[in-house]
């Protein structure tokens, strides 16, 4: 229904590309994705290698600073994160203003944005040293804010971070410890959480990353830009998909529907198969492959039997042998198996997108920095106007 003559405007022809499927909005040296062949690399390193041997913190460093840290750089970065893990007492009071059933994504984006009020000195971030400190501040504090948004919803006292603990262990402590009884996760659980964050750490110009770059292009500060990224991530088609997957699997487990009936509803376009399909990956999502194995290994090691994993495996098998999905090249994406891992870590479903946001933070920060140091213009897409032509204004006393 687009009038082709309207594609021309004063400055030439406008590209009409709904969903920006074929628009390169920037150049970037952070993450490489080849969707046809299922390849993902952070700064040149294959995701499989990072997942096998790296940690989330090392990967965050790689994305933000461009190189894997040396041992001393890793220690310095860890020390910096520990230094930054507490929240200003003033910021702690912000939590009291939220209703206890407030969604943790709303709390996370609001409090991260508010962090900027406590650090007006970090508005410009022209020096690299300031940028490093601001990046560490956000990566460290986001986990405290996330855990406290959960505690607030549970009516539980806030647990302060423990500087002796590693990044992931500390997060689980703030989530699950109770006064006088520190939660002690197994090494396997800590490793699974680190892997979950690592696999979510960046994925080039997805909706939330593009939002961060869009907001940065106005020269907005880092806190405001990543807070906008959190909002963009929230929706069901992006960071909210992992919660959608678990809800779907639970419906099947609870007998509200069956795999066959659910697939039929999807094919009738009444709903989508959550955790399936991707704008870029058209053969497989390498992150889903890694998470599928990790979910399996974790359940096996813990002896915790989650029927949702069996349902997920069966559902994937049915869909991947159905022409509706194969013709459209729809395969499991990163969200299809991640919920199984989060459930095993006792993370409630409404926290799933928050977990995604913690993982994605290094990517957003790296993109903000890249964008702010490139001589890019303010991002400002055009549109094809489809409204009415000029009309004569009718004063109110002459209208019916
Ligand atoms: N279930 C059923 N059908 C689907 C699905 C799905 N999950 N995904 C796409 N399709 C169908 C569409 O209905 C469309 O069919 P049609 O040609 O008959 O109209 C076709 O496949 C193409 O779909 P688009 O929506 O054009 O694909 P797009 O690239 O815009 O969307 C997206 C990608 C949003 C990920 C989509 O596949 C989806 O909604 N998936 C489910 C939600 C999800 O898992 N999101 C997480 C994505 S990964 C991430 O954010 C980390």
Number of strands: 5
Q: How confident is the prediction overall: mean pLDDT?
A: 93
* N→C terminal distance: 33 Å
Q: Can you give the helix content as a percent range?
A: 40-55%
Using the alpha-carbon principal axes, give the shape.
globular
- The largest sheet has its strands arranged as 3-4-5
Ligand list: acetyl coenzyme *A
The helix/strand class is mainly alpha
Order of helices and strands: EEEEEHHHHHHHHHHHHHHHHH
Number of helices: 17
Low-pLDDT stretches are none
Radius of gyration, in angstroms, nearest whole number: 23 Å
Which band does the percent of strand residues land in? under 5%
Please summarize the sheet with the most strands: 3 strands, antiparallel
Written description of the protein model:
It holds the Pfam family Citrate_synt. InterPro entries: Citrate_synth-like_lrg_a-sub (IPR016142), Citrate_synth-like_sm_a-sub (IPR016143), Citrate_synthase (IPR002020), Citrate_synthase_AS (IPR019810), Citrate_synthase_bac-typ (IPR024176), Citrate_synthase_sf (IPR036969), Citrate_synthase_typ-I (IPR010953). Keywords: Acyltransferase, Transferase, Tricarboxylic acid cycle. The active site is at 278, 335. With 400 residues, the chain is mainly alpha-helical. The protein has 17 helices and 5 strands. Strands 3-4-5 form a 3-stranded antiparallel β-sheet. Helix 11 crosses helix 14. The longest helix is centred in the middle third of the chain and has 27 residues, at 128-154. The protein is globular and about 75 Å long. The mean pLDDT is 93. Bound molecules: acetyl coenzyme *A. The site of acetyl coenzyme *A has 18 residues, from loops.
